[in-house]
Sequence to fold (335 residues):
Amino acid sequence: MKILITGGAGFIGSNFVNYMVEKYPDYQFVNLDALTYAGNLENLQKSEEKPNYRFVKGDITDRELVDSLVADGVDVIVNFAAESHVDRSITEPDIFVKTNIMGTQVLLDVAKKHNIKKYVQVSTDEVYGTLGETGYFTEETSLAPNSPYSASKAGADLLVRAYHETYGLPVNITRCSNNYGPYHFPEKLIPLMIINALKGKELPVYGDGLNVRDWLYVEDHCAAIDLVIHKGKAGEVYNVGGNNERTNIEIVKRILKELGKSEDLIRFVQDRPGHDRRYAIDATKIRTELGWEPKYTFKTGIVKTIQWYLENQKWWERIISGDYQKYYEQQYKNR
Ligand code: NAD
Fold:
């Protein structure tokens, strides 16, 4: 089997590449990534050494390039490539529409042209919008995205669905809750808080800190996508979630406790516009139909993650010393 993974130099994509290249030595893997600010080849050192892995630098909106890669015997496409940061989508929505919607359309067209066996779109629970105090997102929940990021992901999901309904393309969509774990870019909540705490810097928490997210350790997400590739029924959507609802402030306090730092470092900052209050996933379908079970609880996953950031200081030091630092200063300057 030959699998084209797009966006495989980002956080989840690189974890997935490393997981699959190791697990399936007889498969061939091609990783197509544009290496935006979020792509980092350092994440892939384990796979680089393996003969069944190849990296191609390029954009998913480049039809000619995607066509030439898929024409070379690709059986499956897994699309992680995206602009993924909600805050950035509020200030620069254009690139979100280009990569997330138009890029997906190019991949779908090429997949159709070459009759590939499976197309997997890695989507997000954010397409469902927000929940009140109770209830869960199921695969039947209506799409109601609230940010330019989630709207672009929802647009892509609808195209994927349409290519199945109109052309019979064998597709799956996975909608996952918030991931955490190794190689998570320092702009996202958990790595940002770990790194700031380690540096003795303030920990900026949006609003009242009571927004709820359902956290999933990234390796459990990788295992879910592996199952969907091999066992997912064409045309189906699968929600993936760890049943680990936590408020942002609980996460921050937990990190400070694990690192033995004071809660005085917490600083509440002005909330993000359109900030969804609560996400929670009902993952019954993937559990019962495909037999998926997460291996990590939040307790085991967060300890492993903190340990990884302690052991890989060079990895994140290099990132936060570059352009990211300018972005960070801009983002929190006037809040
Ligand atoms: P990320 O931002 O860390 O990585 C995205 C990768 O895509 C980067 O390597 C980047 O270089 C690449 N990329 C961006 N534009 C590209 C383009 N035009 N062509 C080729 N490559 C391009 O994102 P992530 O957190 O790893 O998320 C991966 C996918 O999973 C995304 O589609 C995201 O919507 C989805 N998702 C993420 C989460 C989460 O918690 N991080 C949760 C649910 C779903």
Remarks:
- The mean pLDDT is 95.
- The radius of gyration is 19 Å.
- The first strand starts at residue 2 and ends at 6.
- The CA atoms of residues 203 and 266 lie 5 Å apart.
